[in-house]
Amino acid sequence: MKARKYLNNRDILKEIHKSKNSYCSFVNEDDNHYDLVLPNISKVNIRTVAQAKRNRADRLARAAYEAESEVNPKCKLAEFTLDWKKINKLDVVFRIMTYDHIPLEPGRKKNPKTTSDHHVVCNFPPFQHYKFNDNDELVCVGKSHWVGGMENGYFSCDHGKMTNTLARMFMKLVERYGTRSNWRGYTYNDEMQSSALLQLSQIGLKFDESKSQNPFAYYTAIITNSFTRVLNLEKRGQNIRDDILEQNGLNPSYTRQFSNADRKTS
After folding, report:
1. What DSSP letter does each residue of 130-180 carry, written as one string?
2. Is the predicted pLDDT of residue 2 greater than 60, yes or no?
3. How far apart are CA 35 and CA 59, in angstroms?
4. Cα 264 from Cα 266, distance rounded (Å)
5. Are 16 and 200 in contact (CB under 8 A)?
6. Which tens digits make up the pLDDT trace of 98-143?
7. Rounded Cα–Cα distance for residues 202 and 17 (Å)
8. Rg of the chain (C-alpha set)
9. Could you write out the DSSP letters of every residue in 168-229?
């Protein structure tokens, strides 16, 4: 990641992909790159296969461009354009969002409403990768939260880890957000940032690529909620302290004094 530029969705998505892959198992190394995300395997048809080929052609072209730009900064992306029609159908990978390989956990929720409520809690939405074989059949070539082979492996939710680069991205996001004009004046700004980092470390990988390609907005919303939560807790504590001071005939905080003065003048 170049120091001269700030974070962008492409770099964040790349690190999310690497982090999630550490919790997955694949038949081949190339099978970890998906070309299209679908809600279930029945959605694989002529139209989605064509879209997956287009996505794969774009991904390969950009990868070649980025590799060449390291040695030749003047090269252009158009020079590496691939014809999606020449992409082999056997090469495309579909990411299917499914809980089929996640163990059931009856009683985890009293009133389960969604499919996830019936299964073990996962640190991100589970999925499986599928490819066509020589017999034009879809076969599973990868599973999330999995260790070992597709048939003889086992479920695991704690053998992977978040990449160091993604962790640094979280730190940079929180630090930059904490310097905004509406937050930087608070004396407990450090506590706000710590709370936001804790929240990101817990649910940062829950970002679902099947619903959005904008992780920057997703993480910004998490940080905003964390900052607001700490602010509300501090305000509640301050109001309690001011009430106790006033009950004992002492001067409350300047914020309470200014608020009382505004009420009297109005």
Report:
1. EEE-TTS-EEEEEEESEES-TTT-EE-SSS----HHHHHHHHHHHHHHHTS
2. no
3. 8
4. 5
5. no
6. 999 999 998 888 888 899 999 999 999 999 999 999 999 999 999 9
7. 16
8. 25
9. HHHHHHHHHHHTSTTTTT-TTHHHHHHHHHHHHHHHGGG--TTT-S-HHHHHHHHHHHHHHH
